[in-house]
Amino acid sequence: MTHNRMYEQLVVQNGNKVQGFIAYGLYKSAKREWVRKYLADHGRSPKAAEVAAYVSAYTSQTIEAFEAQAAGVLSQFAGGVVADARPEIVEETLRGTFWKGVAQSIIANVIYTTMLIAIALILGAAGIDLLEIATTLAPGRD
User: Fold this and answer.
1) Which of 6, 7, 91, 120 has the smallest count of CB within 10 Å of its CB?
2) Buried b / exposed e along 83-114 (16+ C-beta atoms within 10 A)
3) Which is nearest to 63 in space by CA: 24, 94, 111, 116?
4) pLDDT tens-place string over residues 45-76
């Protein structure tokens, strides 16, 4: 089994396999273009040694360029997916939000009112007259 150095560097050693496969596809596309140009320039397909020399000419900077281009492709794809899904996302987000908010407000007010009534009943049972306190504290009463 032959060892493919570019596959190892672009896919196996890449933490993001999808990006690695895209980078490898970009490499294969560049290699295919080189083979076509070689055929046009020389009137024959390159020999195995010539292809090996072409592949060995790739530097770490060239490999990083494939990875960066793959990251750009993924980013562009993700942006397109989000842009296509945006109307549906907005609709799902807004659907039911108003009535859900109204229901939450009603429930919160019922709980608050119940708590106030409970406090008033407890104070009344303890002999504290809230109305008398309120009129005593009212402005204009000495």
Assistant:
1) 91
2) eeeeeeeeeeeeeeeeeeeeeeeeeeeeeeee
3) 24
4) 999 999 989 988 888 899 899 999 999 999 99
